[in-house]
Write the structure tokens for this entry.
Amino acid sequence: MAYWLKAEGRESDIAVSTRVRIARNLAGMPFPHRIRGTNKVPKVKEPIKKAFLRPGMDFSLIEMKSLSPVEKTRLVEQHIISKDLAASEDGAVVLSPDEAVSVMIMEEDHFRLQAIKGGFDPEGTFEACRELEKMLGKEAEYAFDHKLGYLTACPTNVGTGLRVSVMLHLKALAMSGTLQSALSSFSRFGVTARGMYGEGTSAGADMYQISNQITLGLREEDIVKNISTVVKSLIEKERDVRRILYKSNKLEIEDKVMRAYGLLRYAKKINTEEAMEYLSWLNMGMGMGIVQPCTQDALYNLVMDIMPAMLAAEGGTAAERDKARAELIKKTFV
Amino acid sequence: MAYWLKAEGRESDIAVSTRVRIARNLAGMPFPHRIRGTNKVPKVKEPIKKAFLRPGMDFSLIEMKSLSPVEKTRLVEQHIISKDLAASEDGAVVLSPDEAVSVMIMEEDHFRLQAIKGGFDPEGTFEACRELEKMLGKEAEYAFDHKLGYLTACPTNVGTGLRVSVMLHLKALAMSGTLQSALSSFSRFGVTARGMYGEGTSAGADMYQISNQITLGLREEDIVKNISTVVKSLIEKERDVRRILYKSNKLEIEDKVMRAYGLLRYAKKINTEEAMEYLSWLNMGMGMGIVQPCTQDALYNLVMDIMPAMLAAEGGTAAERDKARAELIKKTFV
């Protein structure tokens, strides 16, 4: 169970979580891809240790090289680290006890500060991340240019280094084929949508990450505000389409939702893709008030917990994971 | 609910019902296809009325022309009348209150005497039918030839006019592809297998009617004994294959059974074909002890009750029937 999901967030029938990350680099230090494997790496970790591993603080530092492949994948599936960090020999992550804030070290940038909250909360999540950035800023001098702003390894992050993402369950927009047109109407806000596990991945349970593309030439507050505007509007659109679908195909929708529930509840083995499809139907059905077999956070946690590596952490073959997945799902509904 | 199914029969995990019919014709009277629409038809019905509609007897006579198309189809789906009788203007049926014994009048022959029992009981069902035949024999002189035996409109029924059928749920034999070879090994017994609703129909829930092909040159007792031998052996074979399947694919089988149960329990609409498929899995699962959401007779009744005309009796379109079917199934499991 991801602790940050335990708190019921706003609009949580459609908004799963809000994440904010801020990219920062040390002044006078080459970017990570230039210093990997050198004796400069420990210097990057120094300010982290000073800021977060002082006595009285509860953060923990996890070195990538100390983790097994399955442990790394689990952190990737929980969106705590990126695949790139998992693959890096020098990489590390600093985590708060509830995993709600964290810092990836030696990813694309020296520091990727991150905060996550359940539901829809761009402002609050940004505040949490900015606080983290300030804590680290007391120990580290950030690479900063008065014209460009904060400097980053990739030019797309230069300026604020800020990315705000909201994960939305856009089942009705996706199934009615109106998602793309809904998104393109927001293109002037510089906002993009990706599947649950990043660019090019399948949408997995119809979950989409809505995030800003532009980090330069805008104030942080405006980036947060833009995402907030777009996401609010997408949530409204999703609700509208759900309402229309339910009104015009009541029996069809109820049938799909209840069959999905029946299959999830009684299957003795189930693969990730199938489970995601049924959980997506079930979540929409819960939002529509058709059925309520568990809480919303339990369902969102399930969406993460049934990922292959989450289950692999307990060992076993793909077939054994399909069985464990079915058991995990069943347990959630009791 | 068909009353004759209420009594738990022998081997009822696999044997749904046993049916016996005896074809008889009046001596000195042309066969039905020669006298249809003539004033000789009432003469055929006379002995029926004398034998079964006397004061103190509970039988009822139903004329085909008094029934609506839906009412006729319902009787066909319950195996009480044939499609041919339903289509006949002169046809009628005499029914006992529990519908366990009946006589079709002016079908292919003047009289088709019928008895049905739940489970596997060729001997008992034959006795019940023979008693019916004797009752009618007191009022009617049967067409009989000392060399050939009882005379019938179709030569395939000449001799005893007897057909013994047992309806078996041969799911495991069917799915493992061994049904045909199992049946062909009994060809010397003159036994044939057909789908639930007769020759050329799809098997519907993997239900097969096992019946004798030969009516001539054998004593009634031998026909009954042959069917009994073949059916016992088929039941054993079905049990063996179930045991092997379950042992070698436990999780696979349990998954299929439980998913079928989940879908039947939660679907909001379901068509006949899909319902039959899931009920077939569920019945095998009940036989295997995997799940027990209702009694065996309730399940067999469901297999009949969800047929289109059974539901159509309450009116409505195909879509409304799919909904009514789902509700009926759900009710059975509560």
The first strand of chain A starts at residue 15 and ends at 24. The interface with chain B takes residues 251-252, 254-255, 258-259, 261-269, 319, 323, 326 of chain A (CB under 8 Å). Residues 220-248 of chain A form the longest helix (29 residues).
